[in-house]
Structure formats: structure tokens, C-alpha cells
From TrEMBL:
The keyword ATP-binding does not apply. GO terms for molecular function: aminoglycoside N-acetyltransferase activity. It comes from Micromonospora inositola. InterPro entries: Acetyltransf_17, Acetyltransferase_Eis, Acyl_CoA_acyltransferase, Eis_dom, GNAT_dom, NAcTrfase_Eis, SCP2_sterol-bd_dom_sf. The keyword Acyltransferase applies. Homohexamer; trimer of dimers. It comes from the Bacteria. Pfam families: Acetyltransf_17, Acetyltransf_9, SCP2_2. This is Predicted acetyltransferase. Belongs to the acetyltransferase Eis family. Residues 8-153 form the N-acetyltransferase domain. GO terms for biological process: aminoglycoside antibiotic catabolic process. The active site is at Y127 (proton donor), F413 (proton acceptor). Keywords: Acyltransferase, Transferase.
Length: 413
């Protein structure tokens, strides 16, 4: 398949183009080409979902997507996991990124499989102009552990902690992850290819730390919690200053969660801990004796683009009963524009075009911000992003768009 750009051609790459694309991404993101990492990434490469721009025989711009599902409030939906968006330094400011993003959105819409697209942004200012909204934020925890304390585990709680190599337990980890993912907006599904990718322990990415380990918690019914982590050795004149780096925390119940953190915060010869993808409502904030010592910093996580509006809004669940007409604008995908009657609740939803008067009005970016239940409808209205056309519509509809847990970005893809 081939599309024409004013300067050059946009083509769908072939499997044998992987190395050339990897070189472009390394150039754009200022990283080296590590053969071990390339082999891991080759395993999740989907060439048929890429868009590649060449200037002559040289690859100069690229955008792609992975075929996965995304956890949303009360459901899991097919979502284009957009990745690898890059332009060579020599070809910036020529409209290539715009051409790729527009083409990609049109293809996703026309294929009719994925009602939303989702991505991590290297720079937050890039993607709102294509209708992406910040749907899930994250916390970065970086703390000194010497003064932190957690509650004692109740004596009646039965559980066992064990250490293992992550690659030795993929099936068990996958089963637990799937059970917990069913209740967490923002988590993506993982097939065998993705588990191989997630558990790969590429040496060049360790940043001087140890190999990755998995801490397992087994309760009365079996495995109910795990944490992927590594440690980094460091000493100063005062003694050991090692660091624990947590990559992933999955717990099915509060007992497993507390037990995992109690160990991670008290590993011998370590004095610091970091966790880059904590949820905004991470329970650890309410467990430690001094939350400010966690050094939690808020950052953006997942950006969502509603591609097929009625399918997307009908696919998720709503915290309370909802009956509202929303007028939406969408410059890039005009099929989404117009008035939509959204009726929903905890058990399901419908969304249909209507000629009825609208109660609320917004652009498609605001719907992306609301989609995972992380942004408040009232907050967006206060920012001028949502307009109330009928009095008290915000108060009536606002609670429905939330969820009992904040969306949690789990992994960068």
C-alpha cells in the first residue's frame, strides 16, 4: 500500500525494514543500537501497522501501532497502541509528522476494529493537536527509606514471600496479571509475545543495577501478588546507600500488597527506593507513616484519542446512571462530530446520533481525557474544555464519568 505525501511517499514497511526503522528511532530518541534489545523488540514488531516515509532510499519518518486491548472502566477494548512516532532531524518542520498522524487515525477509523488509540508522549504538547487527551497520570516515587514505616501485618494473615527469576514464572504471572487487570483501567493485555518482551532483562537497560528479580506473595489460595524489581549497589562514607528499583507491582488484595512493600522498603544494605509508574491513587500513599517522604511527583502517562465515538463511549461502563446529550467537534475525523445521546451505567451503555438539544459541549480531545475515568468532568469545565449548555448538567453527569479506581499506566510501549 502506498500513499502520496507532498514531498515524498508514505509506505507500509516490510519485516525486513526493521533494522532500518530501528536506526531511525535510535537517531530520533538519542539512544544506541543494542543488538540484544533489537532482538527483543523484533519480537513485537508489526510491520503491517507501520507508516514509513523515505527520502529516496533513506527512512526519515515513521509511526506505528501495536494491536492490543486496553483496560477501561468496567471493560477491555481493542485499542491501537501508537508507538515509534519519529522524524529524522534533517526532515523536521516539513509536515511529515502531521501527515503520518492524520493517515494513521484515518486508517484506524476505516478499519473499524479499534474505537480508541492510546500512546505515551515524549512531549505533551505534540498530540493534543491530533485530538489526543491526557487520560491517565502517574506518580514517580523516589524516596529515602530509612524513616518510612508501614503498618504491622496482622498475625492472622497467612502468606509467604519468595524470590525467583521472572522468566521462570511467566504463566503464573500472566494469570495473576489478567485477574487484576480486569479491574484496572489503563492496563494493556499481554499475550505470550508481550510477556517475553516485558520480562526480557536487557543488560543495557539496567543502568548499573542488578538483573531483574520477581518477589512473589502466595496466600491461602495461591499466588496473589508479585513485584518486578532490581537493586543497585552504592556506598558512601556513612555506609551502604543501595537503591531498590521497582518496575511493576501487581497485588490482588491488601494483604499481598502490604507484604510486598514491607519487604521492598526494608531490603538490607539499601536506603532508597524508586518506582516510576505508581498510580495517582497508589495505596502506598495511605500506608506509610510520612507520605511526603515518598517524594511523589505527578507526570503524564497515557494519552487517549477517541477514534470511533459511539463505539468508544458505548464500550466502557459508567459509575452511575447517565443520560446526556453531548455536542462534539472533531476536525480530523468528522464522523465523530455532532450530537450524541449517551445512556449508560454500571451494566452497559449506548451512544447514538441525535437531533435533540445538547446539554454539554466539548471537543474530541476532552472525551479522550474523560475516557479512562481519570479526569473530572467538573475540572474540565472549570478549564473551559467542556461547556454546560443546560444548567445542572455537569452535576448530573459528572459522577458517571469517574470510576472507583484511578486509571493506572502500567507499562511504556
Amino acid at each position: 500500500m502506498r500513499y502520496t505525501h507532498p514531498m515524498t511517499d508514505v509506505v507500509v514497511p516490510r519485516a525486513e525494514d526493521f533494522d532500518e526503522i530501528a536506526g531511525l528511532l535510535a537517531l530520533a530518541f538519542h539512544v544506541g543500537l543494542d543488538p540484544e534489545l533489537l532482538e527483543v523488540e523484533r519480537g513485537i514488531f508489526e510491520p503491517e501497522r507501520g507508516l514509513l516515509v523515505r527520502d529516496g532510499t533513506t527512512a526519515v519518518a515513521y509511526a506505528a501501532a501495536f494491536t492490543r486491548e486496553l483496560g477501561v472502566p468496567g471493560a477491555s477494548v481493542p485499542a491501537a497502541h501508537v508507538t515509534g512516532v519519529s522524524v529524522a532531524p534533517t526532515h523536521r518542520r516539513r509536515g511529515l509528522l502531521t501527515a503520518l498522524m492524520r493517515r494513521q487515525l484515518r486508517e484506524i477509523r476505516d478499519a473499524g476494529r479499534e474505537p480508541v488509540a492510546v500512546l505515551w508522549a515524549s512531549e505533551g504538547r505534540i498530540y493534543p493537536r491530533f485530538g489526543y487527551g491526557l487520560a491517565a497520570q502517574r506518580l514517580t516515587i523516589s524516596c529515602d527509606t530509612t524513616e518510612l514505616r508501614l503498618p504491622e501485618q496482622a498475625a492472622s494473615v497467612a502468606g509467604t514471600l519468595r524470590l525467583d527469576q521472572p522468566a521462570a514464572r511467566p504463566a503464573e504471572l500472566a494469570r495473576l496479571y489478567d485477574r487484576v487487570r480486569a479491574h484496572r483501567a489503563g492496563w494493556s493485555d499481554r499475550d505470550e509475545r508481550w510477556w517475553r518482551y516485558v520480562l526480557a532483562d536487557v543488560k543495557s537497560l539496567r543502568e548499573g543495577a542488578t538483573e531483574r528479580r520477581v518477589l512473589l506473595h502466595e496466600g491461602a489460595a495461591g499466588l496473589d501478588g508479585y513485584a518486578l524489581f532490581r537493586t543497585k549497589d552504592e556506598w558512601d562514607r556513612g555506609g551502604p546507600r543501595g537503591e531498590v528499583r521497582v518496575d511493576e507491582m501487581v497485588a490482588e488484595n491488601p494483604d499481598a500488597y502490604l507484604a510486598l512493600w514491607r519487604l521492598l522498603l526494608s531490603i538490607d544494605l539499601t536506603r532508597r527506593l524508586s518506582f516510576r509508574t505508581a498510580a495517582v491513587d497508589e495505596p502506598l500513599l495511605w500506608l506509610v507513616n510520612e507520605p511526603r517522604q515518598l517524594g511523589a511527583q505527578l507526570s503524564d502517562g497515557l494519552w487517549v484519542r477517541v477514534v470511533d465515538l459511539p463505539a468508544a463511549l458505548a464500550a466502557r461502563r459508567y459509575a452511575t446512571d447517565l443520560d446526556v446529550v453531548i455536542e462534539v467537534t472533531d476536525e480530523l475525523l468528522p464522523e465523530n462530530a455532532g450530537r450524541w445521546h449517551l445512556v449508560g451505567g454500571p451494566s452497559g451503555a449506548t451512544c447514538t446520533a441525535t437531533a435533540a438539544s445538547a446539554q454539554l459541549a466539548c471537543d474530541v480531545r476532552a472525551l479522550g481525557e474523560l475516557y479512562l475515568g481519570g479526569a473530572g468532568l467538573g475540572a474540565l469545565a472549570a478549564a473551559g474544555r467542556v461547556r454546560e449548555l443546560v444548567p445542572r448538567s455537569l452535576a448530573a453527569a459528572g459522577p458517571a464519568f469517574g470510576w472507583h479506581r484511578a486509571p493506572a499506566p502500567m507499562e511504556v510501549f
